[in-house]
């Protein structure tokens, strides 16, 4: 490492102030709904999924948000922008509640956008953030995973600030599910919920998985990930995998931007990346809404009873 690089590298305690939200995927699992509507804009009751992700970042004091978008994603930008005509119409009607909900998304954070020219994997999407992030640590939040609170992200930022390097969120999954995730080899630390990551394998066969602890869609990355990503060849699926770059960093010394830690997450996570889990998420969120629960829960109970009894 040369002297110039030494001078540019921030200290391990450099604050995390920026969030990167990759949103350039094609959403093929939800076709035809996503033919013209970004999957990130599919509603969870009456709010698009991506707004929950931005709210989580803001709740963890990350108010500088970079969206990595692509073609046909303009509605994401429109959602986080002001809608003056709509606001004027609601204001004229005296509909203050809906006016607040419309303004909420545009007032959440300072949202920036950069386009990923072609979908070349999560690693490539993160690379698109390099100019915006610079030589600072940053968080990455994937829109497919909704985390109910910002506690996980806050904890990951705290671990980064004390231990340096990069931090991933890990959740234990069933053996038959490990091939759906990047899985980590881990060693314990002096903190019950923090582990040292020794290996990472993207979507391994169950017999080759280093553990059942899978990466879920939250990362806090050291800027050292960028030069590694530049050198990372396409991996599984012909895409540049962030998992592969983090695996390389896990093998490096701390002074070279190395070490990767994991925060073990046992809270509530919603996987909206497939149809059944998306529907479960919508039902769960709706049932916890005071304005919907009284009407929806009795209907659900009756629906289940009719299904169990074989009645239409």
Automatic annotation (TrEMBL):
<dbReference type="InterPro" id="IPR029044">
    <property type="entry name" value="Nucleotide-diphossugar_trans"/>
</dbReference>
<dbReference type="GO" id="GO:0003983">
    <property type="term" value="F:UTP:glucose-1-phosphate uridylyltransferase activity"/>
</dbReference>
<keyword id="KW-0548">Nucleotidyltransferase</keyword>
<dbReference type="InterPro" id="IPR005835">
    <property type="entry name" value="NTP_transferase_dom"/>
</dbReference>
<comment type="similarity">
    <text>Belongs to the UDPGP type 2 family.</text>
</comment>
<feature type="domain" description="Nucleotidyl transferase">
    <location>
        <begin position="18"/>
        <end position="280"/>
    </location>
</feature>
<dbReference type="Pfam" id="PF00483">
    <property type="entry name" value="NTP_transferase"/>
</dbReference>
<keyword id="KW-0808">Transferase</keyword>
<dbReference type="InterPro" id="IPR005771">
    <property type="entry name" value="GalU_uridylyltTrfase_bac/arc"/>
</dbReference>
<protein>
    <recommendedName>
        <fullName>UTP--glucose-1-phosphate uridylyltransferase</fullName>
        <ecNumber>2.7.7.9</ecNumber>
    </recommendedName>
</protein>
